[in-house]
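Incident log, support desk, overnight shift.

02:14 A customer reports that sequence design results differ from what the structure should imply. Their input is reproduced verbatim below. On-call engineer (initials T.W.) acknowledged and began investigating.
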């Protein structure tokens, strides 16, 4: 007898809908400042969205760092904080979580990811060495340069093309890396700095085949591979979806296989791990760990708290487990894709394929009439806030900074404005509002005149630089 079960709407149209694997228990009110208020706020902030007060922002897509909503289990864990200065029981819970889910032997907690970047740079880099990697990240490169090193980009060429549909645009180009080793000599390479996913390329993933090949090449030359594991859970989703042989593997299994091909990792737990503060540094080599453990006391705190309260470490340990659940990752990336597909349908230029944590608007295509020296991506972020109170951030020439030798601007091929989606925070209706606001800015793009930088700090200028209309 035929099945008489009524079809859902999704089934009737040949698809199955999905929903967030959580329900809302507490809400935080939002309000929209009127246009006059937004204009005043933007001027006060020097046209830099980092300098806006959060109470003047309607939908905050500045970053996914520390902006996640924690679960009831995490909040319950916060009540179990052991605030002992030394040997907090919460440290051992965190250590066990990292060992179980990431597979590394030795753990050091840090106040956030850049604390870990600072430590590994101090210990692993000798002045004059070079650090190849799959596209720079701002804070990572800054710490490498402060330690006397020089970053060299060895990512595949497709990563610099926002229209390329290569499924793993975060991959290291093995020929570029091999040529660098041949030219400079293995001893001059401090380590390979591998990021998963690649933020500045639009949240693009690295394949498991690539990390395996990179590790094999480095092992032949005695070079370590250190991983930025900040968004490795999202990277694992793309491996599961796109790489042959992994469709039936869980996110947690893929993460563990990926880390086996690295020698250590750092992470900003404020992203994948669903907490508002914290990071970690994990290493397999005891001698390296011992030096890091000595250094952490100087800069972060005792090795069993690393600048964190016990309650923060407990929330992080629980968040690591939750972050690797397949339903969570499917929902998280599904919301990002929902926004991206709306924009693509309207012909708005974004980096493709759609990445894991954000939509990256192609500011060069928005404003082809603006020279890069007029900061098109910064302009786009300002225009979006002015239109709708939505806060985004620049990822272009401002973020790229200056050449430390010549003092000239770095002019990256990618000039992007990032719409970063916090985890478990906004609804699909918020994504609709964002898409419509971007469409409004796109429709008025010919009016943009660009910005001039009127104040530039010495380091990581995108955080604090100020601008005025050009």
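02:41 Re-run completed on a clean worker. Output:
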């Amino acid at each position: 007898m035929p099945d008489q079960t009524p079809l859902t709407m999704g089934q009737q149209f040949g698809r199955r809908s999905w929903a967030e694997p959580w329900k809302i228990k507490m809400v935080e009110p939002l309000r929209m400042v009127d246009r006059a208020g937004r204009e005043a706020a933007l001027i006060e902030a020097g046209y830099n969205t980092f300098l806006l007060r959060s109470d003047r922002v309607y939908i905050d897509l500045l970053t996914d760092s520390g902006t996640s909503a924690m679960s009831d289990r995490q909040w319950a864990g916060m009540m179990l904080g052991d605030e002992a200065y030394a040997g907090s029981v919460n440290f051992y819970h965190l250590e066990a979580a990292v060992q179980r889910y990431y597979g590394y032997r030795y753990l050091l907690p840090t106040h956030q990811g850049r604390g870990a970047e600072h430590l590994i740079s101090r210990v692993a880099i000798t002045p004059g060495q070079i650090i190849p990697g799959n596209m720079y990240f701002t804070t990572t490169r800054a710490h490498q340069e402060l330690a006397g090193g020089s970053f060299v980009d060895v990512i595949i060429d497709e990563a610099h093309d926002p229209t390329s549909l290569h499924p793993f645009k975060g991959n290291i180009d093995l020929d570029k890396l091999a040529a660098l080793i041949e030219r400079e000599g293995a001893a001059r390479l401090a380590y390979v700095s591998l990021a998963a996913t690649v933020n500045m390329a639009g949240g693009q993933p690295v394949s498991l085949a690539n990390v395996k090949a990179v590790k094999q090449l480095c092992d032949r030359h005695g070079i370590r591979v250190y991983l930025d594991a900040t968004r490795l859970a999202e990277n694992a989703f793309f491996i599961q979806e796109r790489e042959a042989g992994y469709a039936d593997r869980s996110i947690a299994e893929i993460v563990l296989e990926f880390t086996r091909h690295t020698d250590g990792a750092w992470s900003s737990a404020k992203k994948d791990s669903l907490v508002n503060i914290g990071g970690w540094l994990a290493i397999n080599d005891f001698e390296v760990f011992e030096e890091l453990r000595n250094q952490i006391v100087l800069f972060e705190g005792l090795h069993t708290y690393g600048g964190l309260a016990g309650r923060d470490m407990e929330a992080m340990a629980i968040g690591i487990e939750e972050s690797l659940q397949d339903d969570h990752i499917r929902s998280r990336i599904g919301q990002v894709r929902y926004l991206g597909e709306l924009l693509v349908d309207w012909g708005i230029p974004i980096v493709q394929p759609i990445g894991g944590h954000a939509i990256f608007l192609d500011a060069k295509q928005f404003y082809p009439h603006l020279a890069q020296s007029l900061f098109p991506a910064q302009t786009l972020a300002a225009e979006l806030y002015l239109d709708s109170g939505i806060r985004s951030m620049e990822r272009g020439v401002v973020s790229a900074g200056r050449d430390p030798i010549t003092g000239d601007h770095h002019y990256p091929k990618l000039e992007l404005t990032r719409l970063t989606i916090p985890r478990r925070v906004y609804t699909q209706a918020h994504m609709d509002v964002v898409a419509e606001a971007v469409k409004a800015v796109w429709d008025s793009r010919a009016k943009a005149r660009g910005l001039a930088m009127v104040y530039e700090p010495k380091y990581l200028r995108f955080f604090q630089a100020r601008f005025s209309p050009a």
